[in-house]
Protein backbone atom coordinates (compact mmCIF):
# COMPACT_ATOMS: atom_id res chain seq x y z
CA UNK A 1 0.00 0.00 0.00
CA UNK A 2 1.41 3.38 -1.01
CA UNK A 3 1.69 6.31 1.39
CA UNK A 4 4.39 8.17 3.31
CA UNK A 5 3.20 7.18 6.78
CA UNK A 6 2.58 3.55 5.84
CA UNK A 7 6.12 3.22 4.47
CA UNK A 8 7.94 5.64 6.78
CA UNK A 9 10.68 3.18 7.81
CA UNK A 10 11.77 2.36 4.26
CA UNK A 11 11.28 5.94 3.13
CA UNK A 12 13.63 7.36 5.75
CA UNK A 13 16.18 4.62 5.15
CA UNK A 14 16.27 5.88 1.55
CA UNK A 15 16.57 9.45 2.87
CA UNK A 16 19.63 8.33 4.87
CA UNK A 17 21.13 6.64 1.81
CA UNK A 18 20.62 9.79 -0.23
CA UNK A 19 22.37 11.81 2.48
CA UNK A 20 25.44 9.62 2.00
CA UNK A 21 25.16 10.05 -1.78
CA UNK A 22 25.11 13.84 -1.36
CA UNK A 23 28.00 13.82 1.10
CA UNK A 24 30.23 12.14 -1.48
CA UNK A 25 29.90 15.05 -3.89
CA UNK A 26 29.95 17.61 -1.07
CA UNK A 27 33.52 16.69 -0.17
CA UNK A 28 34.64 18.17 -3.50
CA UNK A 29 32.67 21.41 -3.66
CA UNK A 30 34.86 23.64 -1.50
CA UNK A 31 38.30 22.13 -2.11
CA UNK A 32 38.74 20.56 -5.55
CA UNK A 33 39.29 23.80 -7.50
CA UNK A 34 41.81 24.83 -4.85
CA UNK A 35 43.49 21.43 -5.08
CA UNK A 36 43.97 21.92 -8.82
CA UNK A 37 45.33 25.43 -8.45
CA UNK A 38 47.43 25.11 -5.31
CA UNK A 39 48.65 21.48 -5.40
CA UNK A 40 48.79 20.64 -9.12
CA UNK A 41 49.63 24.21 -10.30
CA UNK A 42 46.83 24.33 -12.88
CA UNK A 43 46.29 27.81 -14.31
CA UNK A 44 43.80 27.58 -17.18
CA UNK A 45 40.18 27.57 -16.04
CA UNK A 46 39.18 25.05 -18.72
CA UNK A 47 41.68 22.55 -17.31
CA UNK A 48 40.62 23.14 -13.70
CA UNK A 49 36.96 22.65 -14.66
CA UNK A 50 37.71 19.39 -16.45
CA UNK A 51 36.78 17.45 -13.31
CA UNK A 52 33.23 18.87 -13.54
CA UNK A 53 33.11 17.99 -17.23
CA UNK A 54 34.08 14.37 -16.46
CA UNK A 55 31.56 14.23 -13.62
CA UNK A 56 28.75 15.74 -15.70
CA UNK A 57 29.18 13.47 -18.71
CA UNK A 58 29.22 10.28 -16.68
CA UNK A 59 26.40 11.34 -14.35
CA UNK A 60 24.16 12.30 -17.28
CA UNK A 61 24.85 9.00 -19.04
CA UNK A 62 24.38 7.05 -15.80
CA UNK A 63 20.97 8.71 -15.34
CA UNK A 64 20.00 7.63 -18.84
CA UNK A 65 21.31 4.12 -18.18
CA UNK A 66 18.80 3.78 -15.34
CA UNK A 67 16.02 4.01 -17.95
CA UNK A 68 17.30 0.84 -19.62
CA UNK A 69 18.52 -1.01 -16.52
CA UNK A 70 15.08 -0.60 -14.91
CA UNK A 71 13.67 -2.95 -17.57
CA UNK A 72 15.87 -5.82 -16.38
CA UNK A 73 17.10 -4.97 -12.86
CA UNK A 74 15.28 -3.99 -9.68
CA UNK A 75 15.64 -0.49 -8.21
CA UNK A 76 17.63 -1.92 -5.28
CA UNK A 77 20.16 -3.67 -7.53
CA UNK A 78 20.74 -0.45 -9.47
CA UNK A 79 21.28 1.38 -6.16
CA UNK A 80 23.86 -1.16 -5.00
CA UNK A 81 25.71 -1.04 -8.34
CA UNK A 82 25.89 2.73 -7.97
CA UNK A 83 27.59 2.39 -4.60
CA UNK A 84 30.08 -0.17 -5.90
CA UNK A 85 31.32 2.39 -8.42
CA UNK A 86 31.89 4.85 -5.55
CA UNK A 87 34.18 2.57 -3.53
CA UNK A 88 37.49 3.69 -5.14
CA UNK A 89 36.60 7.41 -5.22
CA UNK A 90 37.89 8.63 -1.81
CA UNK A 91 41.12 6.65 -2.24
CA UNK A 92 41.77 8.07 -5.73
CA UNK A 93 41.33 11.59 -4.35
CA UNK A 94 43.41 10.94 -1.23
CA UNK A 95 46.37 9.44 -3.11
CA UNK A 96 46.11 11.45 -6.35
CA UNK A 97 49.58 12.00 -7.82
CA UNK A 98 48.30 13.88 -10.87
CA UNK A 99 45.13 15.61 -12.07
CA UNK A 100 44.29 12.48 -14.11
CA UNK A 101 43.53 10.66 -10.86
CA UNK A 102 41.03 13.39 -9.98
CA UNK A 103 39.38 13.06 -13.41
CA UNK A 104 39.10 9.28 -12.96
CA UNK A 105 37.61 9.74 -9.49
CA UNK A 106 34.98 12.09 -10.92
CA UNK A 107 34.09 9.67 -13.71
CA UNK A 108 33.35 7.02 -11.07
CA UNK A 109 31.61 9.57 -8.85
CA UNK A 110 29.38 10.62 -11.75
CA UNK A 111 28.30 7.00 -12.26
CA UNK A 112 27.65 6.66 -8.52
CA UNK A 113 25.57 9.85 -8.38
CA UNK A 114 23.59 8.97 -11.49
CA UNK A 115 22.69 5.42 -10.47
CA UNK A 116 22.33 5.85 -6.70
CA UNK A 117 20.56 9.23 -6.59
CA UNK A 118 18.21 8.27 -9.43
CA UNK A 119 17.34 5.03 -7.65
CA UNK A 120 16.49 6.72 -4.35
CA UNK A 121 14.33 9.32 -6.14
CA UNK A 122 12.38 6.71 -8.09
CA UNK A 123 11.97 4.41 -5.08
CA UNK A 124 10.59 7.22 -2.90
CA UNK A 125 8.07 8.17 -5.59
CA UNK A 126 7.08 4.48 -5.78
CA UNK A 127 6.50 4.38 -2.02
CA UNK A 128 4.48 7.55 -1.41
CA UNK A 129 2.09 7.67 -4.35
CA UNK A 130 0.70 10.87 -5.89
CA UNK A 131 -0.72 12.59 -2.78
CA UNK A 132 2.52 13.62 -1.04
CA UNK A 133 4.89 13.38 -3.99
CA UNK A 134 6.13 16.97 -3.59
CA UNK A 135 6.76 16.51 0.12
CA UNK A 136 8.62 13.28 -0.58
CA UNK A 137 10.86 14.93 -3.16
CA UNK A 138 11.43 17.84 -0.80
CA UNK A 139 12.59 15.50 1.95
CA UNK A 140 14.74 13.54 -0.51
CA UNK A 141 16.47 16.59 -1.92
CA UNK A 142 16.71 18.13 1.57
CA UNK A 143 18.73 15.17 2.79
CA UNK A 144 20.91 15.04 -0.31
CA UNK A 145 21.81 18.71 -0.53
CA UNK A 146 22.02 19.44 3.19
CA UNK A 147 24.65 16.71 3.32
CA UNK A 148 26.36 18.27 0.27
CA UNK A 149 26.62 21.53 2.18
CA UNK A 150 27.76 20.00 5.45
CA UNK A 151 30.35 17.84 3.71
CA UNK A 152 31.63 20.87 1.78
CA UNK A 153 31.97 22.81 5.03
CA UNK A 154 33.69 19.84 6.69
CA UNK A 155 36.17 19.34 3.82
CA UNK A 156 36.93 23.06 3.61
CA UNK A 157 37.70 23.33 7.30
CA UNK A 158 39.85 20.20 7.18
CA UNK A 159 41.74 21.74 4.22
CA UNK A 160 42.22 24.98 6.16
CA UNK A 161 43.91 23.03 8.97
CA UNK A 162 45.66 20.19 7.17
CA UNK A 163 45.92 21.33 3.55
CA UNK A 164 44.22 20.23 0.33
CA UNK A 165 45.93 16.82 0.11
CA UNK A 166 44.62 13.56 1.58
CA UNK A 167 42.76 14.66 4.74
CA UNK A 168 39.71 16.47 3.22
CA UNK A 169 38.69 13.26 1.43
CA UNK A 170 39.11 10.86 4.37
CA UNK A 171 35.43 11.14 5.50
CA UNK A 172 34.47 9.77 2.07
CA UNK A 173 35.60 6.30 3.17
CA UNK A 174 32.92 6.29 5.86
CA UNK A 175 30.24 7.75 3.56
CA UNK A 176 30.72 5.15 0.82
CA UNK A 177 30.86 2.16 3.18
CA UNK A 178 27.82 3.30 5.14
CA UNK A 179 25.80 3.96 1.99
CA UNK A 180 26.68 0.57 0.50
CA UNK A 181 25.96 -1.46 3.65
CA UNK A 182 22.59 0.23 4.33
CA UNK A 183 21.59 -0.32 0.69
CA UNK A 184 22.51 -4.02 0.79
CA UNK A 185 21.12 -5.05 4.17
CA UNK A 186 18.29 -2.65 5.05
CA UNK A 187 16.73 -1.14 1.91
CA UNK A 188 13.89 -3.12 0.28
CA UNK A 189 12.93 -3.03 -3.38
CA UNK A 190 9.77 -1.16 -4.49
CA UNK A 191 8.74 -3.11 -7.61
CA UNK A 192 5.48 -4.32 -5.99
CA UNK A 193 4.39 -0.72 -5.41
CA UNK A 194 4.84 0.07 -9.11
CA UNK A 195 2.75 -2.96 -10.12
CA UNK A 196 -0.04 -1.89 -7.74
CA UNK A 197 -0.08 1.73 -8.92
CA UNK A 198 0.02 0.72 -12.59
CA UNK A 199 -3.25 -1.15 -12.14
CA UNK A 200 -4.95 1.98 -10.74
CA UNK A 201 -3.49 4.73 -12.94
CA UNK A 202 -5.65 6.64 -15.43
CA UNK A 203 -2.69 8.36 -17.10
CA UNK A 204 -1.99 7.63 -20.75
CA UNK A 205 1.37 6.28 -21.83
CA UNK A 206 3.41 8.57 -24.09
CA UNK A 207 4.33 6.84 -27.38
CA UNK A 208 7.36 9.09 -27.92
CA UNK A 209 8.59 9.61 -24.36
CA UNK A 210 12.02 11.00 -25.28
CA UNK A 211 10.55 13.85 -27.35
CA UNK A 212 7.80 14.62 -24.84
CA UNK A 213 10.15 14.88 -21.86
CA UNK A 214 12.96 16.60 -23.76
CA UNK A 215 10.94 19.43 -25.29
CA UNK A 216 7.53 18.83 -26.87
CA UNK A 217 5.38 18.61 -23.73
CA UNK A 218 4.98 22.19 -22.51
CA UNK A 219 5.33 21.41 -18.82
CA UNK A 220 7.80 18.51 -18.95
CA UNK A 221 9.90 19.97 -21.79
CA UNK A 222 10.18 23.42 -20.18
CA UNK A 223 11.05 21.80 -16.87
CA UNK A 224 13.76 19.74 -18.56
CA UNK A 225 15.36 22.82 -20.15
CA UNK A 226 15.28 24.71 -16.85
CA UNK A 227 16.82 21.68 -15.15
CA UNK A 228 19.69 21.85 -17.64
CA UNK A 229 20.13 25.60 -17.01
CA UNK A 230 20.00 25.07 -13.25
CA UNK A 231 22.80 22.51 -13.26
CA UNK A 232 24.76 24.59 -15.76
CA UNK A 233 24.85 27.48 -13.32
CA UNK A 234 25.54 25.08 -10.45
CA UNK A 235 28.60 23.75 -12.30
CA UNK A 236 29.89 27.27 -12.84
CA UNK A 237 29.31 28.29 -9.22
CA UNK A 238 30.95 25.03 -8.07
CA UNK A 239 34.01 25.47 -10.26
CA UNK A 240 34.52 29.24 -10.58
CA UNK A 241 33.17 30.82 -7.41
CA UNK A 242 35.96 29.47 -5.16
CA UNK A 243 38.52 30.82 -7.67
CA UNK A 244 36.79 34.22 -7.73
CA UNK A 245 36.85 34.35 -3.92
CA UNK A 246 40.52 33.33 -3.91
CA UNK A 247 41.23 36.32 -6.20
CA UNK A 248 39.49 38.53 -3.63
CA UNK A 249 41.74 37.13 -0.88
CA UNK A 250 39.01 35.25 0.97
CA UNK A 251 40.43 32.71 3.44
CA UNK A 252 39.93 28.98 2.93
CA UNK A 253 37.49 28.99 5.87
CA UNK A 254 35.45 31.82 4.29
CA UNK A 255 35.34 30.00 0.95
CA UNK A 256 34.21 26.85 2.77
CA UNK A 257 31.34 28.75 4.41
CA UNK A 258 30.21 30.26 1.10
CA UNK A 259 30.49 26.90 -0.69
CA UNK A 260 28.73 25.08 2.16
CA UNK A 261 25.88 27.52 2.89
CA UNK A 262 24.51 27.39 -0.67
CA UNK A 263 23.76 23.62 -0.78
CA UNK A 264 22.85 23.56 2.93
CA UNK A 265 20.16 26.24 2.46
CA UNK A 266 19.19 24.48 -0.77
CA UNK A 267 18.68 21.28 1.21
CA UNK A 268 16.85 22.76 4.22
CA UNK A 269 14.51 24.91 2.14
CA UNK A 270 13.29 21.91 0.17
CA UNK A 271 11.41 20.70 3.24
CA UNK A 272 9.05 23.58 2.48
CA UNK A 273 9.40 24.09 -1.28
CA UNK A 274 8.57 20.46 -2.07
CA UNK A 275 5.31 20.65 -0.10
CA UNK A 276 4.53 24.01 -1.76
CA UNK A 277 4.39 22.17 -5.08
CA UNK A 278 1.64 19.90 -3.70
CA UNK A 279 -0.54 22.93 -2.85
CA UNK A 280 0.34 25.72 -5.30
CA UNK A 281 1.10 26.13 -8.99
CA UNK A 282 4.53 24.73 -9.82
CA UNK A 283 4.86 27.13 -12.76
CA UNK A 284 5.17 30.18 -10.51
CA UNK A 285 7.41 28.33 -8.03
CA UNK A 286 9.84 27.32 -10.79
CA UNK A 287 9.93 30.74 -12.49
CA UNK A 288 10.48 32.49 -9.13
CA UNK A 289 13.29 30.08 -8.29
CA UNK A 290 15.08 30.72 -11.58
CA UNK A 291 14.78 34.50 -11.13
CA UNK A 292 16.23 34.29 -7.60
CA UNK A 293 19.16 32.19 -8.81
CA UNK A 294 19.97 34.72 -11.54
CA UNK A 295 19.92 37.62 -9.06
CA UNK A 296 22.10 35.71 -6.56
CA UNK A 297 24.77 34.93 -9.19
CA UNK A 298 24.80 38.60 -10.18
CA UNK A 299 25.34 39.54 -6.53
CA UNK A 300 28.52 37.44 -6.42
CA UNK A 301 29.95 39.69 -9.13
CA UNK A 302 28.72 43.10 -7.94
CA UNK A 303 29.46 42.83 -4.20
CA UNK A 304 32.83 41.90 -2.71
CA UNK A 305 32.22 41.74 1.05
CA UNK A 306 32.05 38.41 2.85
CA UNK A 307 28.64 39.20 4.42
CA UNK A 308 26.97 40.00 1.10
CA UNK A 309 28.62 36.98 -0.53
CA UNK A 310 27.12 34.77 2.19
CA UNK A 311 23.75 36.46 1.61
CA UNK A 312 24.05 35.74 -2.13
CA UNK A 313 24.92 32.12 -1.38
CA UNK A 314 21.84 31.89 0.84
CA UNK A 315 19.61 33.43 -1.85
CA UNK A 316 21.03 31.04 -4.44
CA UNK A 317 20.18 28.13 -2.15
CA UNK A 318 16.59 29.33 -1.71
CA UNK A 319 16.15 29.83 -5.46
CA UNK A 320 17.50 26.37 -6.23
CA UNK A 321 15.32 24.82 -3.52
CA UNK A 322 12.21 26.30 -5.12
CA UNK A 323 12.88 24.56 -8.43
CA UNK A 324 14.63 21.29 -7.62
CA UNK A 325 11.94 19.08 -6.02
CA UNK A 326 9.28 20.64 -8.25
CA UNK A 327 11.24 19.74 -11.38
CA UNK A 328 10.92 16.08 -10.36
CA UNK A 329 7.24 16.25 -9.44
CA UNK A 330 6.29 18.05 -12.67
CA UNK A 331 7.84 15.18 -14.62
CA UNK A 332 6.37 12.47 -12.38
CA UNK A 333 2.80 13.82 -12.39
CA UNK A 334 2.60 13.58 -16.19
CA UNK A 335 3.97 10.01 -16.44
CA UNK A 336 2.22 6.65 -16.34
CA UNK A 337 3.74 4.56 -13.48
CA UNK A 338 5.20 2.09 -15.97
CA UNK A 339 7.06 4.96 -17.71
CA UNK A 340 8.17 6.75 -14.54
CA UNK A 341 11.68 5.34 -14.27
CA UNK A 342 12.41 5.95 -17.95
CA UNK A 343 10.86 9.44 -18.04
CA UNK A 344 12.64 10.61 -14.89
CA UNK A 345 15.89 9.17 -16.23
CA UNK A 346 15.50 11.14 -19.48
CA UNK A 347 14.87 14.32 -17.48
CA UNK A 348 17.85 13.67 -15.22
CA UNK A 349 20.03 12.97 -18.27
CA UNK A 350 19.30 16.44 -19.70
CA UNK A 351 19.39 18.12 -16.28
CA UNK A 352 22.82 16.74 -15.44
CA UNK A 353 24.06 17.45 -18.97
CA UNK A 354 23.98 20.99 -17.63
CA UNK A 355 27.20 20.17 -15.79
CA UNK A 356 28.79 19.36 -19.15
CA UNK A 357 27.55 22.52 -20.85
CA UNK A 358 28.45 24.55 -17.77
CA UNK A 359 32.00 23.24 -17.56
CA UNK A 360 32.64 23.80 -21.28
CA UNK A 361 31.00 27.23 -21.36
CA UNK A 362 32.69 28.37 -18.15
CA UNK A 363 36.11 27.22 -19.31
CA UNK A 364 35.82 29.01 -22.67
CA UNK A 365 34.29 32.22 -21.29
CA UNK A 366 36.49 32.48 -18.20
CA UNK A 367 39.74 32.02 -20.14
CA UNK A 368 38.59 34.61 -22.69
CA UNK A 369 36.64 37.18 -20.65
CA UNK A 370 37.44 36.48 -17.00
CA UNK A 371 35.41 35.20 -14.08
CA UNK A 372 33.08 38.18 -13.56
CA UNK A 373 31.83 38.39 -17.16
CA UNK A 374 31.28 34.63 -17.20
CA UNK A 375 29.09 34.80 -14.08
CA UNK A 376 27.09 37.72 -15.50
CA UNK A 377 26.35 35.76 -18.70
CA UNK A 378 25.23 32.73 -16.69
CA UNK A 379 23.03 34.97 -14.54
CA UNK A 380 21.24 36.26 -17.63
CA UNK A 381 20.75 32.75 -19.05
CA UNK A 382 19.23 31.65 -15.73
CA UNK A 383 16.78 34.57 -15.69
CA UNK A 384 15.74 33.75 -19.27
CA UNK A 385 14.95 30.21 -18.11
CA UNK A 386 12.55 31.70 -15.57
CA UNK A 387 10.91 33.79 -18.30
CA UNK A 388 10.41 30.65 -20.40
CA UNK A 389 8.80 28.81 -17.48
CA UNK A 390 6.45 31.74 -16.84
CA UNK A 391 5.35 31.98 -20.47
CA UNK A 392 5.28 28.32 -21.60
CA UNK A 393 4.16 26.29 -18.58
CA UNK A 394 0.64 26.01 -17.16
CA UNK A 395 -0.87 24.94 -13.84
CA UNK A 396 -2.43 21.57 -13.07
CA UNK A 397 -4.19 22.68 -9.86
CA UNK A 398 -7.87 23.61 -10.11
CA UNK A 399 -7.78 25.84 -7.05
CA UNK A 400 -5.19 28.23 -8.48
CA UNK A 401 -5.55 30.96 -11.10
CA UNK A 402 -8.08 29.71 -13.64
CA UNK A 403 -6.22 31.34 -16.52
CA UNK A 404 -3.26 29.06 -15.79
CA UNK A 405 -5.10 25.73 -15.72
CA UNK A 406 -3.67 23.25 -18.23
CA UNK A 407 -5.63 22.02 -21.19
CA UNK A 408 -4.63 19.27 -23.56
CA UNK A 409 -3.62 21.80 -26.22
CA UNK A 410 -1.70 23.92 -23.74
CA UNK A 411 0.28 21.00 -22.36
CA UNK A 412 1.08 19.33 -25.66
UniProtKB/TrEMBL annotation:
Any Pfam family matching the protein: MFS_1
Domain Major facilitator superfamily (MFS) profile: residue ranges: 1-191, 219-412
Tagged with keyword Ligase: no
GO molecular function: transmembrane transporter activity
Membrane topology term: Multi-pass membrane protein
A Gene Ontology term for the protein's cellular component: plasma membrane
Protein's UniProt keywords contain Endoplasmic reticulum: no
UniProt subcellular location: Cell membrane
Name of the protein: MFS transporter
CDD domains: MFS_MdtG_SLC18_like
Domain of life per record: Bacteria
Transmembrane segments: 7-25, 45-66, 78-95, 101-122, 142-160, 166-187, 285-303, 309-328, 349-366, 372-389
Keywords on record: Cell membrane, Membrane, Transmembrane, Transmembrane helix, Transport
Amino acid sequence: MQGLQKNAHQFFLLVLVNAFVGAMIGLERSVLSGLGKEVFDLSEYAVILSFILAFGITKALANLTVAFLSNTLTRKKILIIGWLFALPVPFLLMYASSWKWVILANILLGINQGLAWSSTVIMKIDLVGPKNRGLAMGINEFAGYLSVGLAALLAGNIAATWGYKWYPFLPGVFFVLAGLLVSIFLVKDTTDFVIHETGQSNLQQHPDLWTKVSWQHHNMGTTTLNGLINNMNDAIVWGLLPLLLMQRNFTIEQIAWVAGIYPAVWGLSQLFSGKMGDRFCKKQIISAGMFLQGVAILMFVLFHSFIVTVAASTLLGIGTALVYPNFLTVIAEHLHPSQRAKGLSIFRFWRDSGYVFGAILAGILADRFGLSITLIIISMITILGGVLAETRMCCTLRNFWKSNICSETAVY
